[in-house]
Structure formats: C-alpha cells, structure tokens
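testing teh design pipeline on a random one, pls ignore if ur not involved
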C-alpha cells in the first residue's frame, strides 16, 4: 500500500449545495461557513478570522419549575418580576458584548 491510507472524507468535509449559481462557481473553503439569513442590514456578510462566542444556552429568560406558579397581590409585584427577568437578560447580553464577538452562536431561542 506504499504508505497510502484511505480515509472517509465525510468525517472531515461536508459538501453543501447552495441554491442558485452554476457548478463553475463551486469553491473549497479552508474553514467554516455559516449560511444564515442576514436579519439586519448592518450585519456583515463576510467575516475573516471572526471572534466567536459559543453559548450552550439560549438568550432568553427561563423560569425554573418552582417559579412557574406565582401569585401576585398587586400589579407592582408583577412589574417587579418582569423587571428582574429583563435585568437578568440584560446582564447576560452585557457579558457577551464585553467579549466583543463578531459572531454569537446559541442554542434555539
């Protein structure tokens, strides 16, 4: 076998079909490509050597099981709970922003 080793390329590379264009427009990328809709006109369409933050959670407030049944005696109690949830999400977002990422990957949500 003269030092040759067979490998399963599917473990190291993925062929992705993107609608539109022709076969002549095909490229081999050295790196990772994300094909995601741009949700804001100010978002970059291409980022070279990005700073990436990967979160194993979603960016939303998740109530624990013990917090799902709350009774409010006054409207101010309800507003206070909403404020706490908003403060919690703002703190998480501030922590992420402090890292100055170009790209944030999260779980669903």
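output:
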């Amino acid at each position: 076998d003269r030092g040759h080793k067979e490998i399963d390329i599917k473990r190291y590379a993925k062929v992705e079909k993107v609608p539109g264009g022709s076969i002549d427009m095909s490229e081999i990328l050295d790196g990772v490509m994300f094909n995601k809709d741009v949700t804001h006109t100010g978002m970059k369409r291409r980022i070279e050597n990005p700073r990436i933050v990967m979160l194993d959670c979603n960016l939303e407030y998740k109530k624990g099981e013990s917090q799902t049944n709350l009774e409010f005696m006054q409207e101010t109690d309800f507003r206070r709970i909403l404020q706490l949830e908003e403060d919690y999400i703002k703190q998480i977002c501030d922590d992420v922003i402090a890292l100055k990422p170009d790209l944030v990957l999260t779980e669903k949500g």
